[in-house]
Amino acid sequence: MSLQKAQVLEASMVGQADPDKLKVTVQFMQIYRSREVGQSYLTSVGTILIALLHALLLMIKIRPQVILCNGPGTCFPLCVIAFLFKVLGIRWSSIFYVESIARVKRLSLSGLLLYKLHIADLIFVQWPHLQKKYPQTLYVGCLM
Q1: Measured distance CA(7)–CA(26) in Å, rounded
Q2: In terms of pLDDT, which residue wins out, 105 or 23?
Q3: Residue 20 has what pLDDT?
Q4: 96-113 as b/e, with b when 16 or more CB fall inside 10 Å?
């Protein structure tokens, strides 16, 4: 549903009624999730490997300068591959992570991994006490 909604929104923004005409102006790509909500950590090993491979192919194809993400399991593999490219000097992408406004007391799993492993260049939080708990984040207030 999100893909269809994005296509309709993009079509309305460029003044086109037919989402099929968008293929000329914009390209949508689906990113595999590394872990579904409620999926056990044990069974997520296989899906994480598939997501990492898919992220590698996307990074080679797209070569983004900036990755702006807000979770969930889709962002982590992409950020890991971008970070590995950066470490190896192959490609440099800035990684910016925006934590959900729903995260009031602690970072999400994606946010925590990016924070603890120092993968993201900047992590934005939307609650001041969350920034105090994780001092390497940047408090930006409500973004909605």
Answers
A1: 9
A2: 105
A3: 59
A4: bbbbbeebeeebbebbeb
